[in-house]
Known about the structure:
The structure holds two protein chains of two kinds. Chain A has helices at 10-31, 35-38, 40-61, 71-95, 105-127, 131-138, 149-168, 185-217. By secondary structure, chain A is mainly α. Chain A has one domain (9-213). Chain A is globular. Chain B is mostly helical. Chain B has 39 helices and eight strands. Chain B has an eight-stranded mixed sheet with strand order 4-3-5-1-6-7-2-8, with helices on both faces. In chain B, helix 30 packs parallel to helix 33 (756-781) and helix 38 (892-924) packs antiparallel against helix 39. The longest helix of chain B has 48 residues, at 931-978. Bound molecules: zinc ion (2 copies). One zinc ion (ZN) binds at residues 88-89, 136, 240, 286-287 of chain B. Chain A: It is a multi-pass membrane protein.
Amino acid sequence: xxxxxxxxxxxxxxxxxxxxxxxxxxxxxxxxxxxxxxxxxxxxxxxxxxxxxxxxxxxxxxxxxxxxxxxxxxxxxxxxxxxxxxxxxxxxxxxxxxxxxxxxxxxxxxxxxxxxxxxxxxxxxxxxxxxxxxxxxxxxxxxxxxxxxxxxxxxxxxxxxxxxxxxxxxxxxxxxxxxxxxxxxxxxxxxxxxxxxxxxxxxxxxxxxxxxxxxxxx
Amino acid sequence: xxxxxxxxxxxxxxxxxxxxxxxxxxxxxxxxxxxxxxxxxxxxxxxxxxxxxxxxxxxxxxxxxxxxxxxxxxxxxxxxxxxxxxxxxxxxxxxxxxxxxxxxxxxxxxxxxxxxxxxxxxxxxxxxxxxxxxxxxxxxxxxxxxxxxxxxxxxxxxxxxxxxxxxxxxxxxxxxxxxxxxxxxxxxxxxxxxxxxxxxxxxxxxxxxxxxxxxxxxxxxxxxxxxxxxxxxxxxxxxxxxxxxxxxxxxxxxxxxxxxxxxxxxxxxxxxxxxxxxxxxxxxxxxxxxxxxxxxxxxxxxxxxxxxxxxxxxxxxxxxxxxxxxxxxxxxxxxxxxxxxxxxxxxxxxxxxxxxxxxxxxxxxxxxxxxxxxxxxxxxxxxxxxxxxxxxxxxxxxxxxxxxxxxxxxxxxxxxxxxxxxxxxxxxxxxxxxxxxxxxxxxxxxxxxxxxxxxxxxxxxxxxxxxxxxxxxxxxxxxxxxxxxxxxxxxxxxxxxxxxxxxxxxxxxxxxxxxxxxxxxxxxxxxxxxxxxxxxxxxxxxxxxxxxxxxxxxxxxxxxxxxxxxxxxxxxxxxxxxxxxxxxxxxxxxxxxxxxxxxxxxxxxxxxxxxxxxxxxxxxxxxxxxxxxxxxxxxxxxxxxxxxxxxxxxxxxxxxxxxxxxxxxxxxxxxxxxxxxxxxxxxxxxxxxxxxxxxxxxxxxxxxxxxxxxxxxxxxxxxxxxxxxxxxxxxxxxxxxxxxxxxxxxxxxxxxxxxxxxxxxxxxxxxxxxxxxxxxxxxxxxxxxxxxxxxxxxxxxxxxxxxxxxxxxxxxxxxxxxxxxxxxxxxxxxxxxxxxxxxxxxxxxxxxxxxxxxxxxxxxxxxxxxxxxxxxxxxxxxxxxxxxxxxxxxxxxxxxxxxxxxxxxxxxxxxxxxxxxxxxxxxxxxxxxxxxxxxxxxxxxxxxxxxxxxxxxxxxxxxxxxxxxxxxxxxxxxxxxxx
Lengths: 218, 979
Ligand SMILES: [Zn+2]
Ligand SMILES: [Zn+2]
């Protein structure tokens, strides 16, 4: 089953992440400084628009089963995964207390699309509907047990984004009366920061993992 | 092991109670207050010995009383009419400047008339330091009674009941003054029957800065023209509201001050109309405000309140109005009392303000000081029963001055006798012709009096606020020790468990690593403890709990999905799971007969129910302290037709009744007791419905006799049926299973193998009965708006129990117990509770009580406030019944051990961690700005939560112990019979 899997080096992973980061950076420069606070809907829209093609392209290229599945099929999987993942993310956010008023609908949709890009879409592109892989992505135990390289590449930024968003929500109810405490500004900041950290960590994890495997082989 | 753990637990609880009471005693001292009102006896020197309070004199008519006071006090009242104008939240700095400098030009110009009065020496202004908590109601009490209440006085009078202590307004009323009040309705709450005319405005709508003051000023023309009143209280809230909106430097501030200045001008003009100069205008503020416009704490900005006197007795030739004239807010009480010829209120600790009494003769001045000293002396005698003035004077008479007074009593003795002796000698020298000598004697006497008064006043006020530091530290040590004991007990428990589980292969994978939910719970508790140190997080604690609880259940959801993914890949896992279903019939009905796929579906559904219900509960009350004005469902319903609320209540009652019926049906027990309990439950449900509908028909009357009797009937039926169920349920279920035993098994084997179905069924019946009756009680007592959240909390409880019972290997037991406790806390805030004492529902505490009883309504208030955590504790009884309690050795003590140790120990431990850490936080924050407004109310909640935990754990433990005892007794009897 895993025979066709191409081994991905830490360098490839880093390159892929650099591309993703470039997408974020472009969106940020297009939006201009302070845009997330003054007009969160526009900034989030820009982020989604810039980041979506990059992520879908990169992870479709890194698809798990390149033999049986074409690049376009993987990309299509990613495109379908985008709204599905957005739904799950929106559900999670609303359950955790995101406001549901009419004036928040747009930002909630954009935010969940962005979160879907960070979490769901890469996995959808790479794994398709393979249950085992989904299970391992959901699980946090990959950090302790040896797994595949893609798992690190997908899991670390994904977990980072979720954790960052979760931590980013803590200052929201406080009475500091800062504009960035509005939903979903600080949560977005947290998610992006967590995602970046995850992206930075995953090549390191991959390198460590490779060394461990090599040591075991020797 | 069980006995040791129980011993440790009991020791820990005792230690905790001891530490908590020590801390409460040290942190919130309750000062003794004198009851009753000062009367003619206050014009006599206090006698030695115990304070005689029992002297009941026939009440004099007002005119006689007034002349009696006039006679006894040996001087006529200085004024006949009083205008007390309270400008809420005005810092004295705005009028009098700071540190000897006048206020800024802009502020000077915004109060031109007042400044002209000050400059013309027609007014005397003081920086009257207010005592914390700097919120309106306690400050008004301090002004009129001269006493500083302790925090607990403030806390327990949060519902602004009528003020019963001795105070100026009642004294003025007693001698026939007619009172009129315009402004903040707090006055009406404090003095509901005192005012001849009144117009209260609510301080609730802080956003309104214009209407509140217009509603006061619109009466001014009429009242100032009217001659019938002699005391006029004006309380302007607008300036406080301006501060709350925009802070000290708000653009509205100068405008508002101009408006206030205009009111002062009008009142003063009107008082000058009666040329007898018998009107005193007093402009005071109850507290100041911070730069941001808030108040409540003890910073200089907040405590710097104004006391400004305008009248003939303060006029003098020379003055420097911007000297930093320090006084205490409580000084207002004795000053006004003596100016108006009434006795000083009994609990006053204030001291006469000298400049206000300029028009008095020297004799009269000394007399006022003497009266003030006698009153303070009476208060001192209440605090130090052994203290006696005559002994002082006798012992000191000829000896002269003691240089080093060794005790506080001696110091008082010394100061007091010095004052009285110099007063006497000035009286003796009065007849002599040497003016200068007389003035000198008077000066010495005044100085001596003030020496005593200031010292005593300071001592008394410190008695009300000082904290014995070492006592507090030792209290915290006790609590920490108790916390460690509990931790030790829990770690013992875990060690014992992991030892006993090494032989169980199915658990070995679970034991290996920390799981996400376990890590999260530990992190969550840590984050919660950290958040207690921030006043903002304490104010908005509902967010913390809601966030933590929903995250925990989201993790459960992920784990469920994960197990489903895993399960559909490899079906062999189920083999091990199937045989672990040893729960009761209820469980068998819900889970045993299910296919794996269906069971997965149920697992998913139950978690989703908890999550969605939690979100709806959260949207119901936008609680907290800072975001109260946000829209939420409860506000929507409050505006909607009452029919909608009633129908929601009806739906909730019906749903609870239906759920109970369904669960009893699943239990498959058809004994008479069960049917009886079911019928009584239905009748209770009907009573609650009746109560709801009665209220609907008759909303105009506050106390409705038919609803009271309905509620009482409910209490009676509910308590009888609950106790009947608890007592009877262990007797009605079979000890040994009669069906499942194969015929081949030998007799001895049968005896050894106790069936745990019976005991589970019995505990289940008890637990579910507890929970549903509790639910009905809550539906009866809580505000109508809370009906649906209550139902949702009940659903959450049931869903959690079902979820945990469906797959016992998914989450560890301690995770399950803590998850239920989290739900309880989230629900507590979901019912609209906050960490401010204002959110306690006082109205519900009188349902079913015809006469006022502090104990009963206190219990009801506790039941209402802690409805949700207690419901989860009662749900925990259901939970222990669906747990896998079959032990290899099948001893009753082991079963008991398995049933109760975890559900009892963990809540105690969590509560102990919260209590201990919050106590430490409170000690560290004792000088914090918000200690009285945020941290101390929260501490009362923490203490109440501790009581709630004890109650819940006690119920769980007693139920389990009773059931096990009955079953073991029955088993022994059965064995004896069969042999
Ligand atoms: Zn106030
Ligand atoms: Zn205020």
